[in-house]
Write a structure and sequence with these properties.
Alpha-Beta Plaits; eight-stranded mixed β-sheet; 27 helices; Rossmann fold; 765 residues; alpha/beta; four-stranded antiparallel β-sheet
Amino acid sequence: MRSNGAVMLEPMIERRAELPSGVATGEPAQQVNIVHVVHGLLRGRYIVTIVLAVLFGLAAAAAGYLFPVPRYRAEGLIRIQPVLPRILYTSEQNTLPPMFSSFVNTQASLIQHSRVLNKAMDSDGWRDLGRKRDPKAEKQFRESLRVVTGRDAPELIMVSFTDEESRAAFVAVSEIINAYQDAFGGSESKAQRETQNKILTQRKQALESQKRDTETRINTESAEFETDDLARLGDHYLTQLLALDDRLNEVALSLAEAGIDINALPVQPVAPGSDPQAAAEPLDPLTPEQIATFDGPMAKYLGELAEFRRRLDLYRSRGIGPKHTAMTDLNAELSALETAIADRAASVNAAAAASSSLGTAGPVVAAPAGTSLTPAQLVKRYQHLRQQSEALRSRTDLVSKRKLQIDALRRELKMTETNLDEVNRRLDEIAVESKMTDRIGRIEAILPDAPPSTPTVDPRKKYAAMGLVLGGGFPVGIFLLLGLVDRRFRYSDQAGDRLGGARMLGILPELPSTIDDPEQAAAAVHCVHHIRSMLQLADPTRKVYVVTSPTAGDGKTSLSLSLAMSFTMAGERTLLIDFDLIGHGLTSRLGASREIGIGHQLTHGNTSPTPEATSVPGLSLVPSGRDDAAYASRVSREALAKMIEGFRRDYDAVIIDTGPILGSLEANLAASAGDAVVMVVGRGQQSSDAQSAIRHLGLLGARLAGIVFNRANSMDFSRSRSVSASFRSVRASAAASAGHTSTDIIPAADMLGPLARSVALDMRP
């Protein structure tokens, strides 16, 4: 007996199973268990998957460890000093460059220049390694080189080379750094300095020659004058010209008083720059004061004379006598200075007198004032003074013009001397500071000491691990993909999971055509009885059960016959109806007449078909005829329902074996007219077909009693608690059946099939 709770629970389960797939039930969705999903995809394939995963993983790991070649990396450093020590001058070598980081990056780019790489590959050290020299080798050489500037130490450039051979990496780094130094390092700086020295030396020679030419021109321009100080000489000539003009005005005034018109007097023209003394009358010598106006030493002497006289007056005012030592010394110095002044005046006057023979204008001195001259003498004097004035004016203009020319030449000489000093300073700077550059150098190379002893890049372990994972995961992935693609039912619990929670009535084992093991037959019989008891306990009012399947070949006919025999063994009056109008499975197995079948009687007869007795004690059969396939489309639901109602009164259990629910007309009629539907799903059945069958039953309004999973394997029985818990009686039943055959109980039992024969064997008295 079952409890009330079980009685109320089972109809709820059945109603839930009747809902078509995709209809919301209002229950919360369960979270997907990834482990459960993976387990479902790999079930039954674990051993093959593990074996293949191990084999593939080990093979891929071995390939990953053996194929990659470890690589060695040699490293060298190039240090670029920002500032070199200063010796004397400030130059670009001992000052920080304004863009030092850019300079370092430029050097890093030069290291990777094709000129450097070609020189390194052409070196003796690299050729001794036996490496090829082709475009592919050059590309690999460039890709193996890495040049990195330091972030924390911007003056450092790290040069590294990676190769399969340790010595090749060492040689490559050394040759690359040496090639860089030869191409862009110290030798290039030395060549630049030599070029600079050559250019500056040529510039120095040109400036020295220009300086000599300018000095020669200055001496030539000033050689015709008595002194090279043309500024003082011009002032002296101007002073003399003013004095001469005053005398000329006096003589002109005297001529005017004498009634002589000076404008009517003839004047002999004077050539520009001629000697003013040539037409002048003899004049008195120049006084020291006059000489001091254009002579520097005389001006100095007169200054000292004034100082001595001031000191002499000071001594006298202090009461110092003439015999005092200080007075004696001062008078002696004063006497010597007066002698020097007289000698200087005589020398200048003598030079002035002699200059007339050289075409130079000597000092012009007018005749003493107050001298009485006749009109004729005044006229002559006026003419001479005027001629002398014109000559002196012409001489003054010449001095002024020459002074401007000489000043321009002196400015040019000054500029030349400045440029020459700059060139000399630059030459000296290069000569001094280059000694520090040659000794230390801005670029310092730090080569590796020896080839690397251990691989720097060794991907073998990593590739082996990757190969183990990928190789081992390949078969796992293949079988997972196979599990996703293969939507067939391979286990009984898959049917329950994929069919929307439909009730599982039981499972049936896969039996051979000939059963030699009594325990195996007893287990199959136990499963049939279990299904029958589940149907009876679900709802005692049910009598008519329709057995169908999604497609043909699932074992519905074997289950129909076995269930009918089980009901008979339970004391139930049982009727089998072969409503498979195309297959006729039950009629054939039970050896019934097939002249006039149920299809013909439902379409032509006014009375219900009469059941026939079978070889199974207590079991009746309504057979199908061989021509019933033609009447499948003519049978009405009302006729079928009327027939079923008639049999319901006479039998305790009515089992209708019909065709597959998908594509069978008679199955639709039977499912809608019966009390409940038992759907058989065989192992290997596509889940989509089973789901479509359940949805189809829902559309017909049929009540699904549950699912029977056929051809289950031993793992299904070990996981099924309801079946495995009752297997303790299997051994006892098998022992009791030993020595018997199904034909001993039911004649022609060999035609029933392995499952029905096992049930028939259990029907012994």
